[in-house]
Amino acid sequence: MQKPIVVVGSINLDLVVGADRIPQVGETIIGNSFSTFYGGKGANQAVAAAKLGYPVSMVGNVGSDAFGTQLRNGLEEAGVDTTYVNTVEGASGVALITTGLRGENNIVVVPGANGHLTPKLLEKAATILEHAGFLLAQLEIPLETVEYLAQFAERHNIPLMLDPAPARELSEKLLRRVTWITPNESETQELLKTNFENGDQRSYAAAERLLDCGVKNVLLKLGSRGCLIAQGTLAKERVPAFPVSAVDTTAAGDAFNAGFAVGLMRGSTVARSAIFASAVAAISVTRPGAQPSMPTGDEVECFLEQHSITTAQQPSYTEQVR
Ligand code: ATP
Ligand code: RIB
Questions:
Q1: Over the stretch 182-199, which tens digit does the pLDDT of each residue have?
Q2: How far is CA 223 from CA 109, 129, 185, 255, 256, in A?
Q3: How far is the CA of 152 from the centre of ligand 2 (A)?
Q4: Is residue 231 within a helix (H) or strand (E), and if so which, with residue range?
Q5: How far is the CA of 121 from the centre of ligand 1 (A)?
Q6: Could you confirm whether 163 is annotated as catalytic?
Q7: Ligand 2 within 6 A of CB of 94
Q8: Which runs of consecutive H residues, i.e. helices, occur in the chain?
Q9: How far is 17 from 266, CA to CA, in rounded Å?
């Protein structure tokens, strides 16, 4: 039997305004559209993995408001096991998102119920956590809960993938317990407390420094430039992004993490899993919204075929860098 992916993280309702561009501080502009989508980094990763056909359980909180019921139903409809999704008194998490015409966005998250996902609630979910094949976490829940999870993962020898988003400073103790860390460029900057400008040499140096902090494996997400894999002393590998026309990049990172975890759980190599993840993320950016943008397994297979990437060809698609 396949061991499930267990996602410990946030569940949000996304309130999304589409505009020609993101307004500057103090500026008012007229928008083009308003939509609501199911979101939250944790829930997005859970839904993405479930839509790829992998068994997923979610550990998280929704509020006692009307959004809470809708968010839980959304997870279940996508095939996510919600046995350990708690309903707590008060508001569900929400994210206020503005997207521009080139797919760019900015986001303000109000955690609501997600802020009450305590280590005590994880203790209650111990049965499912113990049986996880892979644990996935992000930083939209209390840091002490992520730290508890990391300790749990280490104690039970279960790999943990941490998406350090939204960016914040993390202790070396936590980083040492993480199997895969998957920051984007701004998160890398925050983790390393240094400016991280575009450019391959800088990405390699940043990945190297993250390894020096004690993380076992690093996967830097570089937006439309793809991603960089760094594992100990192995040669780093860069996987280019697929050339697509982006309409909304919200949750590209979540799509990527889910695809990567599913790839590894199915026994693919790291490089092949990263290519699969890039395809999942590329499809997601061509569609609006967070969870509705996540592709099914068949859609990803079809996309890879269209881009002439067969399983046999996949290794040569990556570029090794020393
Ligand atoms: P988000 O916060 O929007 O969820 P992120 O900032 O965590 O995303 P990104 O680096 O922007 O992560 O994107 C993750 C992955 O998605 C990239 O490594 C790439 O494979 C894919 N991706 C992102 N943007 C594009 C794009 N415009 N075209 C193709 N692929 C993209
Ligand atoms: O990663 C994208 C997600 O970030 C959105 O769905 C929003 O809810 C915020 O949590």
A1: 999 999 999 998 776 666
A2: 21, 31, 8, 12, 10
A3: 25
A4: strand 227-231
A5: 31
A6: no
A7: no
A8: 41-51, 66-77, 119-124, 126-130, 143-156, 172-176, 185-192, 200-212, 252-265, 270-285, 297-306, 314-317
A9: 37
Amino acid at 82: T
Is 36 within 8 Å of 292 (Cβ atoms)? Answer: no
CB count, 10 Å around CB of 191? 22
Give the span between the Cα atoms of 304 and 280, in whole angstroms: 10
Cα–Cα nearest to 316, from 221, 240, 207: 240
| 46, 75 contact by CB (below 8 A) | yes
Angle at 236 between CA 181 and CA 137, to 5 degrees: 10
pLDDT tens for residues 66-98?
999 999 999 999 999 999 999 999 999 999 999
| β 12-18/93-99 pair status | parallel
- For ligand 2, the distance from its centroid to the CA atom of residue 224, given in whole angstroms, is 18
Cβ–ligand 1 distance for 15 under 6 Å, the answer no
DSSP 8-state symbol, 165 = -
Out of 14, 81, 163, 254, which one is annotated catalytic? 254
Query: What pLDDT is recorded for position 322?
Result: 45
| pLDDT value of residue 111 | 98
Taking the alpha carbons at both ends of the chain, their separation in whole angstroms is 39
Q: How far apart are CA 312 and CA 126, in angstroms?
A: 39
Nearest to 64 by CA among 9, 6, 121, 116: 116
